[in-house]
Amino acid sequence: MSLSKTEEHLLNHLWKLGKGFMKDIIQAYDNPKPAPTTIATLLKRMRDKGFIDYNVQGKSREYYPLVKKEDYLSGSFHGFVKKFFGDSTEQFASFFTKSTDLTTEQLKELRKIIDEEIKRKEQ
């Protein structure tokens, strides 16, 4: 199951906060702030999807993420590669390196990261 862009935006705020009440979440947004009813709707949808939960504190709810940012990004990336590149990381890498405005230095840095990961996995 995936999140909409507005749900992802809210989840990013919740990851930064760690946990928070609705007022904390709204405060994390830039101006103009979203309406509390909008945030409440998003929170309900995200809870129904299993991405967040809450603890009851008196009459308030303190929300927290159930999904780690790294896990969500990894799943989103795999879905992106599958959807747009036929599940081929080679096609993705080819597109990414040829169709973006990466400098030679940025490409060298990518190669360094990849080489380090290869060494780590071979050990």
Plain-language structure description:
The chain has 123 residues and is mainly alpha-helical. The chain folds into two domains: 5-65, Arc Repressor Mutant, subunit A, CATH 1.10.10; 69-122, Penicillinase repressor fold, CATH 1.10.4040. It has helices at 5-17, 22-28, 36-48, 69-85, 89-98, 104-122; strands at 20-21, 52-57, 60-65. Strands 1-3-2 form a three-stranded antiparallel beta sheet. The chain is elongated and about 55 Å long. It starts with a helix and ends with a helix. The mean pLDDT is 93.
The CATH topology of the largest domain is: Arc Repressor Mutant, subunit A
Per DSSP, the total helix count is: 6
Q: Uncertain runs with pLDDT below 50, 5 residues or more?
A: none
| CATH class wording of the largest domain | Mainly Alpha
Classification by helices and strands: mainly alpha
Number of strands: 3
Order of helices and strands: HEHHEEHHH
Task: Tell me the helix content.
Answer: 55-70%
Strand order of the largest sheet: 1-3-2
Rg on CA atoms, Å: 19 Å
Percent of residues in β-strands: 5-15%
CATH superfamily of the largest domain: Winged helix-like DNA-binding domain superfamily/Winged helix DNA-binding domain
What about the largest sheet? 3 strands, antiparallel
Domain module count: 2
